[in-house]
């Protein structure tokens, strides 16, 4: 099937790009993506274990990486992956029926079956038509699939976003299969309830940055965030402060004519979570908050799609901004002070510009989180700054030099940590910026070198 063939094109170079790719890198990236598509499962473990190989490869490519950096990205990812199990053809035949499809959803071991099914669908109808049918047709089934894209700390929509950005049917099929097979944390009721409330005209829209402040100021929401929930903390806070989160999140509303501005607002406010630091501690980026940032770039890619209706683009954006607020709450609603960024004095990255950040980040041993964060920040700068110049900075809390400063914080705090121990939390990040215990292991500022 043509869908299973990976073939990158210079016509889709990727967002946030500064320089052309070196000769031969499109071909190498296609080869490595093909290998991942044929050999590896989407989940390398049952809980919070997503395959990041395509994310890492395509980001390194967009950031100008060469053959060495691309091979580094692949080698850092493949060693932990599970082999892709063969699809059950009898099951795949039945997935065309919506009721049978739903019977197999939310089960990680069904990934291979969903992948084979969506490959067939895309081969027959094209990936754009398939996305419109399964995610944007406004049926209850499509709403379920759309909400599933946001599951797992945004991972399915990140994966799908790469497929859209680089025009790769194989990645779109993987992203849809990812969404269908991912376990549910019940965010669909939250999305639909906030949407209904927003359309009722009983709550007025407010700037997103103010809604972040409301989340932090709400005592019930803060107390609903439990560190012991681990990777399921989003589900936990939705259970314990559901009504309060719905009421606040429904106030993020975007008019179709304000799509680009709303996207910039979401990107800038999401990046502000990078300023969630702890007084007296060396600067670290929070692992959960960084996904708010790394996911944001793909909403620009989706906005560029002429086959996607404006009302669906608006819906995608509103759901993203509303879920960002949930994840901000779930991680303790950490205090975010812009001076944590503005006053930062770079160490390893002192004097660097974006090209230096890109080059050096591409060489860090990592599973793709560092480079994704860097590219999303540079893209954020490109998208947000024109709006800041037009309307002032009130709704765009991250602006100006802050984009590069946040990137420097990320580089300086991750570059010297070469490899993470298998099965352990990465030392590159702080794992819960709004809670006290995760900061215990972070060095004090006075002892930092």
Automatic annotation (TrEMBL):
Keyword Chaperone listed: no
Protein name: HypA protein
Top-level taxonomic group: Eukaryota
InterPro entries: Questin_oxidase-like (IPR025337)
GO MF, one example: oxidoreductase activity
Keyword Oxidoreductase attributed: yes
Species of origin: Amylocarpus encephaloides
Region (Disordered): 1-23
Keywords associated with the record: Oxidoreductase
């Amino acid at each position: 099937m043509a869908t299973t063939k990976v073939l990158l094109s210079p016509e889709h170079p990727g967002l946030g790009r500064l320089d052309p790719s070196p000769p031969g890198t499109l071909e190498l990236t296609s080869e490595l993506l093909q290998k991942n598509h044929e050999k590896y499962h989407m989940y390398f473990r049952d809980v919070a274990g997503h395959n990041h190989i395509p994310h890492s490869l395509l980001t390194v490519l967009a950031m100008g990486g060469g053959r060495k950096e691309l091979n580094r990205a692949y080698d850092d990812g493949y060693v932990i992956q599970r082999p892709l199990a063969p699809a059950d053809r009898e099951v795949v035949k039945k997935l065309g029926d919506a009721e049978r499809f739903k019977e197999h959803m939310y089960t990680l071991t069904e990934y291979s079956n969903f992948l084979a099914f969506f490959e067939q669908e895309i081969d027959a109808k094209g990936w754009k038509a398939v996305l419109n049918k399964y995610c944007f047709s406004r049926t209850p089934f499509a709403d379920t699939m759309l909400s599933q894209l946001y599951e797992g700390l945004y991972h399915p929509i990140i994966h799908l976003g790469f497929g859209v950005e680089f025009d790769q049917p194989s990645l779109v099929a993987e992203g849809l299969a990812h969404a269908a097979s991912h376990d549910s944390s019940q965010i669909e009721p939250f999305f639909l309830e906030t949407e209904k409330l927003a359309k009722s005209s009983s709550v007025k829209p407010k700037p997103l940055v103010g809604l972040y402040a409301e989340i932090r100021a709400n005592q019930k929401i803060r107390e609903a965030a439990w560190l012991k929930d681990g990777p399921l903390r989003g589900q936990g806070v939705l259970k314990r402060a559901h009504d309060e989160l719905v009421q606040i999140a429904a106030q993020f509303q975007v008019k179709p004519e304000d799509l680009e501005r709303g996207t910039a607002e979401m990107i800038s406010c999401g990046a502000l979570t990078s300023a969630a630091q702890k007084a007296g501690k060396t600067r670290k980026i929070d692992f959960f908050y960084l996904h708010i940032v790394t996911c944001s770039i793909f909403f620009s890619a989706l906005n560029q799609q002429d086959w996607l209706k404006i009302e669906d683009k608006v819906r995608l954006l509103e759901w993203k901004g509303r879920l960002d607020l949930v994840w901000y709450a779930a991680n303790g609603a950490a205090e975010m002070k812009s001076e944590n960024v503005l006053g930062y004095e770079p160490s390893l990255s002192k004097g660097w510009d974006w090209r230096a950040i890109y080059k050096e980040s591409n060489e860090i041993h990592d599973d793709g989180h560092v480079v994704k964060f860097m590219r999303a920040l540079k893209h954020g700068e490109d998208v947000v700054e024109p709006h800041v110049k037009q309307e002032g900075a009130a709704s765009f809390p991250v602006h100006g030099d802050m984009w590069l400063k946040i990137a420097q914080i990320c580089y300086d705090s991750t570059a010297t940590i070469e490899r993470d121990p298998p099965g352990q939390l990465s030392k590159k990040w702080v794992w819960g910026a709004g809670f006290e215990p995760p900061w215990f292991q972070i060095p004090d500022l006075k002892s930092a070198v």
